[in-house]
């Protein structure tokens, strides 16, 4: 499904199956009404003193046997169609999400994404598999039954259908406030789901920092808002539904038909035998009140779900090119007049020029919020620059084939993500065909091999199931991953929180192994790690305010030198 497609586009590929399924349901509608007609015809004939009309009896029997079979054929067609749509939407959604900027994922909650990929898609396909084919059946049953009654006695049909018509009009012409309430109800339900996910993710922090309070105020607010909205919606529904529901209830219609039936029979407007089908079909007539509201709800629910999918598909994809580069390792990266703003009007990187010479380590330091992490995340295209360009050997990264970009540029960030797979598979991510030997060699170089062997299942242990790794250990696994991928350029966001000294020195050893013979751009949060860098750039408010080697900058006695003054570095001058 392409971005911006609507419900019609969504249903187009399965339209034939849905049409056949709907047609079979119309056939089922005939099968539902036929036994009622048969009972009526048999009774009328017998009351008239005639012989049993066996044709009607057999028609009823056949209808009772065949209808469930046709119904299951119809459902297997519509469910097959809905399964196909579900598969197609999810696959397209995942393909699309793979092309949106990586930074977009930081802005959506896991709950929102899960709801979209899982519940919204399932709800839409439930509608397609079940509700859409059942709608024509519902309509056909109502139309057939009422047409048959009108054929017997049009005037009496009008009289008994009157409460249903009034109830339908009342239900359809709801005051507009109901839509607002329902919209608010959906909004608060979404808010509650997102807050619940946030709370689940941050529970440990809440427990530690909020003492006995186990819930975030925002979560409690979300519960309050949703409860209020739920009660308001239910009260409004109840108020607006009371009269129509009474008028269209089966018991009311039965009493109404009986009373008017007696009047009609007493005044010779109706023969007693003709009252039978009306009494028998009271139930179908009373349900007809839901026909229009059900169809309206069906259409609006399908539209709302299709719109929410459409919105996800509308997230702009990163424009990609197909350029590849010669397989060389000595490539030069250049930031030329790079400007970036997350939100319009607030520049985070300001006309920045920087060249990363092949095989050199460039360290970025500067106060918190100066734009260091943002700068490094522009290179692997978490977001695209809003001005200027980043080039690899003179080619704008926006024109490079993304696979080529990630072959050239590896990144190790602080927030290491592990997949729920074996340790070996986690290391093998960039190169699934890598041999066990290469995986082990990478782990050895990343100083994590011995730790992995401490596990009974070793490299076959599933992370999160058989084994959990500490922050420093997880970081070394992600370094092993990058060592195996062996990209010529590496972006490194050094961990802010120093692990214990032993783990810290192992991470440093692993980074040294990884950085060998590579062009490295690193955000340094601790000054000791930048001393040997080939170039150090000092950032402030999105600009480079100093650049040089450690010795040059110390001799200059400027901002960098100032950071080394006791007490400054620890207050966050270096990040
Ligand atoms: N996803 C985002 N959306 C909007 N603004 C953001 C986002 N990420 C960062 N910022 C803002 O951009 C500015 C630069 O942030 P950045 O994280 O790049 O700084 P930093 O120098 O790496 O800071 P630190 O050393 O504290 O990590 C900050 O003002 C920050 O609030």
UniProtKB/TrEMBL annotation:
Subcellular locations according to the entry: Cell inner membrane
Pfam family, one: ABC_tran
Protein topology in the membrane: Multi-pass membrane protein
Main location: membrane
Membrane-traversing stretches: 18-37, 57-81, 121-149, 155-173, 243-263, 275-293
InterPro entries: AAA+_ATPase (IPR003593), ABC1_TM_dom (IPR011527), ABC1_TM_sf (IPR036640), ABC_transporter-like_ATP-bd (IPR003439), ABC_transporter-like_CS (IPR017871), P-loop_NTPase (IPR027417), Type_1_exporter (IPR039421)
Keywords: ATP-binding, Cell inner membrane, Cell membrane, Membrane, Nucleotide-binding, Translocase, Transmembrane, Transmembrane helix
GO molecular function, one term: ATP binding
Occurrences of domain ABC transmembrane type-1 (ranges): 19-301
Domain spans labelled ABC transporter: 333-566
Keyword 4Fe-4S annotated: no
Family affiliation: Belongs to the ABC transporter superfamily. Siderophore-Fe(3+) uptake transporter (SIUT) (TC 3.A.1.21) family.
Matching PANTHER family: ATP-BINDING CASSETTE SUB-FAMILY B (PTHR24221), ATP-BINDING CASSETTE SUB-FAMILY B MEMBER 6 (PTHR24221:SF654)
Protein name (record): ABC transporter ATP-binding protein
């Amino acid at each position: 499904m392409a971005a911006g497609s609507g419900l019609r586009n969504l249903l187009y590929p399965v339209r034939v199956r849905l049409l056949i399924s709907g047609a079979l349901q119309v056939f089922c509608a005939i099968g539902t009404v036929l036994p009622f007609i048969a009972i009526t015809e048999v009774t009328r004939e017998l009351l008239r003193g005639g012989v049993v009309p066996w044709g009607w009896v057999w028609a009823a029997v056949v209808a009772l046997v065949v209808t469930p079979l046709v119904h299951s054929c119809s459902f297997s067609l519509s469910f097959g169609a809905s399964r196909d749509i579900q598969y197609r939407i999810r696959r397209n959604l995942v393909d699309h999400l793979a092309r949106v900027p990586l930074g977009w994922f930081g802005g959506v909650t896991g709950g929102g994404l899960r709801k979209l990929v899982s519940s919204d898609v399932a709800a839409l396909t439930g509608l397609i598999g079940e509700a859409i084919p059942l709608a024509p059946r519902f309509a056909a049953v109502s139309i057939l039954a009422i047409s048959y009654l009108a054929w017997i006695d049009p005037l009496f049909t009008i009289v008994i259908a009157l409460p249903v018509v009034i109830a339908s009009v009342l239900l359809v012409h709801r005051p507009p406030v109901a839509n607002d309430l329902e919209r608010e109800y959906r909004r608060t339900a979404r808010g509650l789901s997102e807050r619940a996910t946030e709370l689940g993710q941050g529970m440990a922090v809440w427990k530690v920092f909020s003492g006995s309070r186990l819930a975030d105020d925002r979560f409690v607010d979300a519960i309050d808002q949703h409860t209020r909205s739920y009660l308001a919606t239910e009260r409004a529904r109840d108020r607006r539904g009371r009269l129509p529901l009474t008028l269209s209830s089966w018991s009311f219609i039965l009493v109404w038909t009986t009373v008017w039936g007696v009047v009609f029979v007493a005044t010779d407007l109706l023969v007693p035998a003709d009252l039978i089908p009306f009494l028998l079909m009271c139930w179908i007539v009373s349900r007809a009140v839901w026909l229009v509201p059900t169809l309206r709800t069906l259409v609006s629910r399908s539209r709302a779900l299709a719109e929410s999918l459409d919105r996800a598909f509308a997230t702009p994809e990163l424009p990609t090119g197909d350029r590849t580069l010669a397989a060389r390792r000595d490539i030069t990266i250049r930031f030329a007049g790079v400007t970036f703003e997350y939100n319009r009007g607030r520049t985070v990187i300001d006309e920045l020029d920087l060249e990363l010479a092949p095989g050199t380590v460039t360290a970025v330091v500067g106060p918190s919020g100066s734009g260091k992490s943002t700068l490094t995340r522009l290179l692997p295209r978490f977001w695209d620059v809003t001005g200027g360009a980043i080039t690899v050997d003179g080619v704008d990264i926006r024109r490079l084939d993304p696979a080529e970009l990630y072959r050239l540029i590896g990144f190790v960030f602080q927030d290491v993500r592990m997949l729920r797979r074996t340790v070996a598979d986690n290391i093998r991510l960039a190169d699934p065909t890598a041999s066990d030997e290469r995986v082990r060699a990478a782990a050895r170089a990343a100083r994590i091999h011995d730790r992995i062997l401490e596990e009974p299942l070793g490299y076959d242990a599933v992370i999160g199931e058989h084994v959990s790794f500490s922050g420093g250990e997880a970081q070394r696994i992600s370094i092993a991953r990058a060592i195996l991928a062996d990209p010529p350029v590496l972006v490194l966001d050094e961990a802010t929180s120093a692990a214990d000294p032993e783990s810290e020195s192992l991470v440093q050893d692993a980074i040294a192994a990884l950085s060998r013979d590579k062009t490295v751009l690193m955000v340094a949060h601790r000054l000791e790690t930048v001393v040997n860098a080939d170039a150090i750039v000092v950032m402030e408010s999105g600009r480079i305010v100093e650049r040089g080697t450690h010795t040059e900058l110390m001799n200059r006695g400027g901002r960098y030198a100032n950071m080394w003054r006791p007490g400054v570095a620890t207050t966050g001058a270096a990040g």
